[in-house]
């Protein structure tokens, strides 16, 4: 049965899930997630913002909510059966927040069943857009949240550490995706065989993995290529301080295609702006506090571009 | 899905087969920026050896595509392009139109570090350039270090930079347009 959200304008619509990750901490993932969610809500889209940064939840602060009335902890502890029971209202009419657990140490490294229960319930949430802010690093517990949708968003800052982590994140994401994708039994067997026999370091590019699998079974190789083509993450270059850095986004897109075989959608850059820090100190989202600053304008453009891409896919 | 080693010159430079001379030059500059030794865009993914190999391939692609006769030979004999398709310019304009923001995102800056990288890649020493241009080594080093204070006036930097760039076989006008000192003017 369609919910109220799904019957907007009398037409059921397809839910869009955007997971925001990137490997390194401090690149502005939470700020980008929250501001994208705000931009969508201002366009009167129904949005749920999910704080899945299990080790450092702070999306509530980005939205100016100091003490969230409900958090993910209640769902994790099974005090409530559904995630919708812990959604909280925000200052924006069309935006709800699923606040991260700030007081549960054991959730930083969830058990497989805990994680899958959470992922399945996130997928079941009812909204036009679900934006998921995931944690830093590239462990599988983080990547599994990124892979909830095919259109994850990578947030990278123009620093060697961030770029290095982003490439690692992409490599781990595709390997994880290929290993756990729904595939014919024989195909899965061949992929598992090659992956078990080769350590990550043995194949530098995904092409090499495909060649190895194709060597064992050509059909499995073709299946892998198709899966790889479906993985189209988006890229946002954040905290750009000068013109020299702007080209890095396009450059990463080109390099990723050539060396990893992953076709990224480069969305654009968001400039570093002192006003962002000023708004955090005021517990106010920067796009609301300084709507005319360049960072706010660029996030707005990014939201529009991401919507266009999502619509092309559906 | 094409493997890196199978990419043709156009694919290597991310341009279409009917790219203009300016587009080829811009793509070349952009590729140099991506793969030069200090480029952070490829940091963590490519080794220094891979960057050098890529730069050599980019250089080879550029030298071929920028030279009309070599390009024609490559198109006809290597790629075996259909000539009628090659001259087809009826493709909708909308496809090639880019927004101001996209243009800005593709802008390139060619600073001293990158010029040094190109020079080293071509195996040209500063002494070679100094002998050829009669420009003092200290000025040539200053160009590569982006130390503009050394030049008594802007006109010296402009003149010396032009001569330096010509020795590298590059188009001075293109470089000056993308040089950080003149770009901000």
How would you describe the overall organization of this protein?
The complex is a heterodimer of chains A (314) and B (185). Chain A is α/β, with parallel strands linked by helices. Chain A has one domain (16-163, 237-313): 3-Layer(aba) Sandwich (Rossmann fold), CATH 3.40.50.300. Chain A is built from 14 helices and 8 strands. Chain A has helices at 29-42, 59-62, 72-76, 112-124, 140-146, 160-180, 185-197, 206-216, 218-230, 243-246, 248-260, 274-281, 286-289, 294-313, and strands at 16-21, 47-52, 88-89, 95-98, 129-134, 153-156, 234-240, 265-271. Chain A has an 8-stranded mixed β-sheet, with helices on both faces. In chain A, strand 3 and strand 4 (95-98) form a beta hairpin. The radius of gyration of chain A is 20 Å and the shape is globular. Chain B is mainly alpha-helical. Chain B folds into 2 domains: 4-92, Helix Hairpins; 112-183, 434 Repressor (Amino-terminal Domain) (Orthogonal Bundle), CATH 1.10.260. Mean pLDDT of chain B is 82; it is low at 85-97. The A-B interface holds A 158-160, 163-165, 167-168, 205, 207, 210, 225, 228-229, 243-244, 246-252, 254-255, 258-261, 266, 268-269, 301 and B 1, 3-4, 7, 14, 30, 33-34, 39-46, 101, 104-109, 111, 180, 183.
